[in-house]
Amino acid sequence: RHCRLKYLCLMFNPVLRRRSVWWRLRRLFLALMLLYVFIPVIVKLCPSIQAKLVFLNFVRVPYFIDLKRPLDQGLNHTHNFYLEPEPGVRVGVWHTVPAHMWRDAQNKDGHWFESSLGSAQSAILYLHGNAGTSLPAGAALTAVLFQVLSALGFHVIAFDYRGWGDSDGSPSELSMTSDALFIYHWLKVRLNKAPLYVWGHSLGTGVATNVVRRLCDRDSPPDALILESPFTNIREEAKSHPFSMVYRFLPGFDWFFLDTISANDIYFASDDNVNHISCPVLILHAEDDAVVPFHLGKKLYHAASRSQSLSGHKVQFVPFDSSLSYKHKFIYRSPELAHILRY
């Protein structure tokens, strides 16, 4: 009876009704403020949370993909297999042969695909970004990229770092780099001196510059490094990412969030790596990229242009106008891509 009376009072008394709404809004505001403060504290106390947010390897879009069947993604000239970068750790690999070989590739086994590398004209080692697998931008999108590269005559080798897709283990910057180096050397010895290019996308650009720096330190650089939607280093990328917008101006932002990334030994310092790289570099970036802002790609290009180790090597930056709507992951749509890569 008391509840009914209270309800009737609220219904017929506008003052009480306004007070009720005000108190609800106030409680909601206080709850949001507590959550706003609570999240940085939890991230600082549990640094592993920040590592998961950087890698996002637990996110799969679309989720129900059988990586053992690249044919389901329209890649009928692609072979799925597994390699072990170290004992007990297995990573999944895709090998897409050039388009002119697709008829010969039908129903062939792994031995045929591997032996085809011996007669390759050129090959690309593709390093994907976070939040996915060797199909980082979604199955249909990256399958089209592989088809484009295949049509240009490239063998394309793409793999999942440990902790991604159906690969074993858990991710770290060190393991991602060592996995990529292992796959690179596996591919290199089978190519019979054919050109080998390293292509990184998004977070994969950080892996790519790590790999190429180590190769150059050993005087065995790849034939070129291609960086699609790259950033300078992970701290600057995290600070520029849309998800950080709500905390960017919070006092102590660096201490709460950026120092926590470093505490996980995650750096991806491409702006430092370019000072140790000695091979041609091509940077591709869309002006309307909201995930990795265009200015970070431009800044990396300027760092590479000033690099003493890159003196005498071609360093090229190719922007894509925002009117094209290529954003973070649609550069493969460019009809100029074939010309850019050939040039």
From TrEMBL:
Keywords: Endoplasmic reticulum, Glycoprotein, Hydrolase, Lipid metabolism, Membrane, Transmembrane, Transmembrane helix. One of its GO terms (cellular component) is endoplasmic reticulum membrane. It is an enzyme of class 3 (hydrolase). One of its GO terms (biological process) is phosphatidylserine catabolic process. Lysophosphatidylserine (LPS) lipase that mediates the hydrolysis of lysophosphatidylserine, a class of signaling lipids that regulates immunological and neurological processes. Represents a major lysophosphatidylserine lipase in the brain, thereby playing a key role in the central nervous system. Also able to hydrolyze oxidized phosphatidylserine; oxidized phosphatidylserine is produced in response to severe inflammatory stress and constitutes a proapoptotic 'eat me' signal. Belongs to the serine esterase family. Residues 123-257 form the AB hydrolase-1 domain. It is found in: Endoplasmic reticulum membrane. This is Lysophosphatidylserine lipase ABHD12. It comes from Neogobius melanostomus (round goby). It catalyses: Hydrolyzes glycerol monoesters of long-chain fatty acids. It is a single-pass membrane protein. One of its GO terms (molecular function) is phosphatidylcholine lysophospholipase activity. The chain crosses the membrane at residues 21-43. Its EC number is 3.1.1.23. Its main location: endoplasmic reticulum.
